[in-house]
Every structure is written in C-alpha cells, then in structure tokens.
C-alpha cells in the first residue's frame, strides 16, 4: 500500500533563491525554509509532489505570497519601526551597531528611503506594494 505522506525532496534548485552570502549555515536554513513553505502549500491544497502542479498556481489559489517576500516585508516593517523610535532607545542603538546591509538593500530595491519610514501608513503601503 502506498503512503499518503508527501516527502520533501533531497535535491534543491537554488538558481532563483536570493540568499545572504554570509555562511553555509544560513544558506542551509534558507533552503529548508523554502522547502517547508512549498511542502505546506502543497499540503493545504491537498496536492502531492508527484502531481507536478506548479507551486505558483497553488499559492495564487490560496492567495499567498512566497516565503521570501513575506520575510522581506517583515524585515522592512521592523526596520521602519526602529527608524521611527527615539534616537536614545536601546533598540535603535543596537541596530546601529549591527550590520543591516540586507535590510538596507531591501528598502533601496523597493525605492524607499529613511524619511518614508517616518510616515507609518505610507511606509506600510509601500512595503506591501499597495
């Protein structure tokens, strides 16, 4: 009798995944996260990997964005919050010490700037692409 459980493939196509160039560990975590997101979308739609239905169509059916864009939106939402808080706040001081190249690249790609973050409603609309 065939198993009804879907297994995650052991090989991964990484050509269209944009990952940070920091460590092999982070690369592995990005790939696991991406694979788990694909697994969950198929599971929610009741589709098996063997059905070979494109994941893009399944995400559209559910009204979901891909996990990478969701993470990017969450990073930018957090970054806007940090930019709006007072300069003497401990969170902002920690952010200044921490490297934030990924977040800064995200907001530059989206055509945002630090002044946009001061207007929370406009910042959220620009992040979401409304």
* Order of SSEs: HHHHHH
Low-confidence stretches: 1-15
Query: What count of structural domains?
Result: 2
Radius of gyration: 18 Å
Measured distance between first and last alpha carbons? 49 Å
Helix percent reads: 55-70%
Mean pLDDT across the residues is: 76
SSE class:
mainly alpha
Can you tell me the overall shape?
elongated
Biggest sheet, open or closed, and with what strands and sense? none
| Tally of individual helices | 6
Total E-strand runs: 0
Q: How much strand?
A: under 5%
Structure description:
With 130 residues, the chain is mainly α. It folds into 2 domains: 24-64, no CATH class; 68-128, no CATH class. It is built from 6 helices and no strands. α1 packs across α2 (55-62) and α3 runs antiparallel to α6. The longest helix has 22 residues, at 24-45. The chain starts with 23 loop residues before the first helix and ends with a helix. Residues 1-15 have low confidence and may be disordered.
What's the layout of helices and strands?
Elements: H1 24-45, H2 55-62, H3 67-84, H4 90-97, H5 101-109, H6 120-128
Helix pairs in contact: 1-2, 3-6
Task: Offer a concise description of the structure.
By secondary structure, this protein is mostly helical.
Main traits of this protein?
6 helices; 2 domains; mainly alpha
